[in-house]
């Protein structure tokens, strides 16, 4: 069987059964077992309605007994209805509704048979006492058995046959003429066979309904299996492609820092564009496949926006665009990585597409919310484009650039996941307004300027070290978990680690810290994989998770976002 289509044979078989109507008398064995589970669910869903309606009928017939039967007979018949049949029904319904056992069908059918035979006894008892009582009650019982209760057709036929035979052999012939007796029995037998036909028609329709529902279930499982297969491919591709991309970006960053060469700057721009396009494609794929994990926490808006704007100022200067930031030191409740992506995409959209001279970023406090406004004085966005500007791969007419048209689509999807409102208005240019929920106010604190970096890739380790030294940090480095153990006695209150190391994983490293030391540092987990293990490690130790390739601005943003009181 195709490993990506594990349900293909079952789907083909069900389609064949539906098209050829090949289920008149049952299903193949493995499908029949699924149908029995489906039937059990349907029967148990009917229990409350069956029980309540049965009790109502019994009470009505008890009232009729008062008017139709002599006193000495009504006492007996009412006692059977109210003190035998109704308690049995109540107990069985409560049992089946709240704690249905494996042998539920035995309980269900046994109570039906006992109640039916009690009706036969009531008819017999009234007749031997020279009182007249019609057998409509027995016909109602048969209707319940064949139609209302949803019993399997063979079982319903057997139980109703027992009741018809009980009536036929119990009816005292000495009180009725033979023609009357034969008329009654013939009518009940005719009703019995009509009930079998009705039950078979309902069973056939129910089996057809089950097949269509089962087909939908299998197709859903097939789709999920294919999505999981694609997810695994995406995770592997992400890891394999991000590694070389990370190395390229780091090398270009280092060259640009050490050398003044226009060719290096062009290479840096091209590398940055490629990295952005690649990141956008992966982000959109992760969102569409529901792989984007949301980790809400307290986020300082001002340093987050500053970390985005700072590396863009050189590009803005070259385009003749000025940034004007007037953002208060507000704290909001959001996912820092997702919020960073939203702000970054909106700011870069204004930078790359607005033809503006000024980009204004400001904040406003409104009730329990903080409004972040990103506005430009450029050409704006036509009103007729507002409806689809947030669609994936959407581009304005005449727009020419190296982008994919995914930036605003990612903003829309991430905002939806976070529950943040994003509005677009035209006001002497384009203005985006993001509404964020305020967080409980806390005092910010400066992080300790000492960090332990653990990575078995010497090139990445060296580049990380250069970045942190440039930012004024005291940096400790290690190529393995064993080396890190010898350093941890200094108790750095930051640890940055790659997920997969030569002698274990980041989970092993942070587990050691947690078990052997009386403190837990702030942690940053770097990985090119989107596997479940990575997410579980980040959640377990409350780590900031960064996907490769890591840029200096994203790393600084992660550091700033983490610097809040516990």
Tell me what you see in this structure.
With about 575 residues, the protein is an alpha/beta fold. The chain folds into three domains: about 10-220, no CATH class; about 295-435, Histidine kinase-like ATPase, C-terminal domain (Heat Shock Protein 90); about 450-560, Response regulator (Rossmann fold), CATH 3.40.50.2300. It is built from 17 helices and 14 strands. The strands form four sheets. The chain has a five-stranded mixed β-sheet, with helices on one face. Strands 9-8-10-13-14 form a five-stranded parallel β-sheet, with helices on both faces. It has a two-stranded antiparallel ribbon with strand order 1-3. The radius of gyration is 37 Å and the shape is elongated. The two termini are about 50 Å apart. Its EC number is 2.7.13.3. InterPro entries: CheY-like_superfamily, HATPase_C_sf, HATPase_dom, His_kinase_dom, HisK_dim/P_dom, HisK_dim/P_sf, Sig_transdc_His_kin-like_C, Sig_transdc_resp-reg_receiver.
Summed up:
This protein is α/β, with parallel strands linked by helices. The chain is 61% helix and 13% strand. The strands form 4 sheets. Strands 2-4-5-7-6 form a 5-stranded mixed β-sheet, with helices on one face. It has a 5-stranded parallel β-sheet with strand order 9-8-10-13-14, sandwiched between helices. Strands 1-3 form a two-stranded antiparallel ribbon.
Residues in β-strands, percent: 5-15%
**Quaternary organisation:** single chain
Taking the alpha carbons of the first and last residues, their distance comes to 52 Å
Rg to the nearest angstrom?
A: 37 Å
Helix-residue proportion: 55-70%
Order of strands across the main sheet: 2-4-5-7-6
Number of strands: 14
Structural class: alpha/beta
Count of structural domains: 3
The overall pLDDT average reads: 81
The profile of the biggest β sheet is: 5 strands, mixed
Total number of helical segments? 17
Low-confidence stretches: 441-448
Query: What would you call the shape?
Result: elongated
